[in-house]
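Render this sequence as a predicted structure.
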Amino acid sequence: MQPILHQEFDVTVVAVQPWGLAVQLQDGTPGTIDNTKDPDWPTGNREALVGQVLHAAVLDDERTPVRLSALKTDLVIARVKRAALNE
């Protein structure tokens, strides 16, 4: 499945990188959440995130791996954008 811009997914954190989180969509598609798009960054135990499921929206579907955001503001923006397409 090819993720599409502004879609939302539950993703599993598979690794913590210096620049953000490596995640995997439910179908196995790899993704990344930059540090600035992670609501818990820079606080907390980053390694404890491995294995956790986050809800995220696609910010850039043309990158490999796909770029996502777990910020509430980006999730709201994604919903507004999808709703505008359906009008």
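Summary. The mean pLDDT is 93. Residues 72-85 form the longest helix (14 residues).
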